TrEMBL record:
One of its GO terms (molecular function) is RNA binding. Belongs to the eIF2D family. It comes from Esox lucius (Northern pike). InterPro entries: EIF2D (IPR039757), eIF2D_N (IPR048247), eIF2D_SUI1 (IPR039759), Pre-PUA (IPR041366), PUA (IPR002478), PUA-like_sf (IPR015947), PUA_eIF2d-like (IPR048248), SUI1 (IPR001950). This is Eukaryotic translation initiation factor 2D. Translation initiation factor that is able to deliver tRNA to the P-site of the eukaryotic ribosome in a GTP-independent manner. The binding of Met-tRNA(I) occurs after the AUG codon finds its position in the P-site of 40S ribosomes, the situation that takes place during initiation complex formation on some specific RNAs. Its activity in tRNA binding with 40S subunits does not require the presence of the aminoacyl moiety. Possesses the unique ability to deliver non-Met (elongator) tRNAs into the P-site of the 40S subunit. Residues 204-264 are annotated as: Disordered.
Amino acid sequence: MFEKAFRVKSNTVIKGSDRRKLKVDISTSFPSLSAEELSDLVPNKEELNVVKIYAHKGDAVTLYVLHKNPVFFELEKRIYPTVYTLWRYPHVLPAFTTWPPVIQKLAGGADLMLPGVVVPSGGLPEVKKGDCCAVKVVGNKAPVAVGTATMTTAEMRSLAMKGRGVSILHSYLDSLWAFGDKSGPPCIPDVDTEGVEGGFLEEEDGQEATEADAEEPYSSSNADDILDSPCPGLQEISLADREEEGEKGIEEADKDPEDPRSPQEQMDALLLQCFLHALKSKVKKSELPLLTSTFLRIHMFSCCPNGKQLDIKKSSYKKLSKFLQSMQQEHRLVKVKELSKGVESIVEVDWKNRELRSFCSPEDPGIEEAPVEVGGGGERPYRPPEITSLYSVSSRLEPLFQDANIRKGTVLQPAEVRTIITDYVKRNELVDDTNKNYVIINPILCDCLLEKSEYQDVEALKWDDLFSRTLDKMQHCHQLVFPGLPPVVRKGPLEPIDITVASRGSNKKVTIIKNLEVYGLDPVAVSVALQHRVQASSALNPVPGSKDRVSVQIQGNQVQQVGKLLLGRQTNQLETLLGGCHGCSLCRHWCFVHHY
């Protein structure tokens, strides 16, 4: 879950009532914690922060941070401890044992597979499906990952330790660990796996394992002393990882030398550049008078170079009105008037101004209306799926398809259905001799296609009526084929992208976009793209009744901007987003539902 960087939504100090509720929830979820240990993790008087974040896949997560280290995180109303907590109290969760090289795989988002689990002398921990559990390495009790069991311990044994054992949520070296002080796991000797560790060393290095000096048993009283001595083997992995990140940072610094100007001076220069570019290439004389807010939102923002963000508050002007006043008085480029109370407009532009005429638009491909990558993560341009309407054989129509050896639940394309029905009619000689456009209804066609009220009245059907009735009686399905992935067949009609304009408060409106995931669109990427396009705050909210879907919410009525982002500005709107029209079936399904 935290293999990639997450986005922080808010960071506040916990309230007294919430602190008490958190203590009760933790005590209920982890009864093995004593009252003293619970008070240590959630102290009454020390500052405890509540940090709300969005993971890279859109999951809403709440972090509880103490002394700059996250101690617990809450996902879908369930609390989990972090590795920082488990290093102090490793007895909180049942733990599975694996080998040290597996840590980096877990930090990269992989789950713990049962073939990689080491069975200690005491046997596997007893867990139920969905139980919260930890993962530790051979020879060390300090857990390195937290997740949920995918099956019971008995099922693991019955499957001969094959398949997925633990679904990992958080691990050492992931972004949640990096949110803390980035300390390494301590060395807490694990007596149960000492023999296993010796065997591993002999097998790998050909050396005999030496017995370590007797150490005191671990307890919460000496937890602080043990935490001060990080485990060498795991520390090497952490240091190697940080060295790689450092080398990458040096390379990036070499590519982008620092601008000697202050950030405020850089923003002032960017403002002037976007202002001149907008006047020279975007604004037309017929558009005047032009609202200053519209000029900023529609023209100046679209002229901002790719990779940069226009923010007036970070400039020396702080406000748009002061910037335009400077452009009017010092540069004499525009004339601004207050045509109505509190609303300013640009009423005149000096097109012959020497500064404006000498300005050359920067040759930056990001300045023009570049297609926004709203797919998975923005690593590669979005490619839409190929959509095909399919039909599944229902139990009522099974006798009609029996001659073709097609059972209930078989998914067919419309052309295949047409061919099967045509073969059935010809095989049973049901074509009307007097009029070839009609098909005589036999008992099977009567039971499958006619309503009870039509049994006595309808003796024949036209070919088109026969095909349409057959498709109507079948269950609607659809197939999505994403580039490079196997086809996905789903029951029911294809859901359109739903755009809703809702009211919040007295006179505020928000635009809510749903069902982006159906088309392979990343809600996080769409949210960021809209936020940059309209310069308004956006948020991701879970969709009620759906586990793996989120909706994008952005301030204001942004229906037109959402349409421009997803479809483009060209007349053949589908081709802009889809890279070429894919036929009527795709155009029929790729649609938008607007609610006002």
